[in-house]
Amino acid sequence: DAKTTQPTSMDCAEGRAANLPCNHSTISGNEYVYWYRQIHSQGPQYIIHGLKNNETNEMASLIITEDRKSSTLILPHATLRDTAVYYCIVRVGGNQGGKLIFGQGTELSVKP
Amino acid sequence: GAVVSQHPSWVICKSGTSVKIECRSLDFQATTMFWYRQFPKQSLMLMATSNEGSKATYEQGVEKDKFLINHASLTLSTLTVTSAHPEDSSFYICSARTSGRGTEAFFGQGTRLTVV
């Protein structure tokens, strides 16, 4: 599975949008982009995933560039409870979908 | 999202004893389950992948005789840490996924193992 590159840490003011970037320049055509987050001492929580179109759900929006080499996770109105480590992972989807390999992620701190 | 439950949430055991951790998918059938280990201030490290009814596939460097994984049904997988030592103290997390295109995996809440 392709590797991803994320900033180590980011700060965001409460109520503002948090934009978390991810580079995945070696992504293959059949690989999806997944985002998870992990709040301290809990299991990771699924946020969103996409293949090439932008996606939105109740938690976040995922913007994937046209060449699919990078993406941005957007939390539209960050709250203190969004403080967590955010992981961007690429992997093959479907029945051939493999394991989720976690990188170091981005530690997002939402501040009052 | 789907619910994955781990039990126990935390456990303390004596060195040399074995500990079993259960992972259950509560509202879906998990064709594949994954086990991870996480040390403080580090990312999750995949230990093994198991498919229901098959032997687990272990990642390089993970001792299969020490970390026994059983995935006997579509809703239950167990990880047994045999002859535990203090260096096995860690946060163990399971993940479950069902088959399907682009299907995401869901994670349990984790089990904190402390070996004394």
What does this structure look like?
The complex is a heterodimer of chains A (112) and B (116). Chain A has 112 residues and is mainly beta. Chain A is built from no helices and 9 strands. With 116 residues, chain B is an all-beta fold. In chain B, 0% of the residues lie in helices and 51% in strands. Chain B has no helices and 11 strands. In chain B, strands 2, 4, 5, 6, 9, 10 and 11 form a 7-stranded mixed β-sheet that branches. Chain B starts with a strand and ends with a strand.
How would you describe this structure in keywords?
heterodimer, A: 112 residues, mainly beta, 0% helix, B: 116 residues, four-stranded antiparallel beta sheet
Distance N to C terminus of chain B: 36 Å
Level of helix content of chain A? under 10%
How would you sum up the global shape of chain A?
Answer: globular
Number of strands of chain B: 11
How many angstroms separate the termini of chain A?
37 Å
Radius of gyration of chain B: 13 Å
- Low-pLDDT residue spans of chain B: none
- The Rg value of chain A, from CA coordinates, equals 13 Å
Count of helical regions of chain A: 0
Mean pLDDT of chain A: 92
Order of helices and strands of chain B: EEEEEEEEEEE
Largest sheet of chain B: 7 strands, mixed
Main beta sheet of chain A: 5 strands, mixed
Q: Determine the most extensive contact between two protein chains.
A: A-B, 24 and 27 residues
Which strand order spans the largest sheet of chain A, edge to edge or round the barrel? 1-9-8-3-4
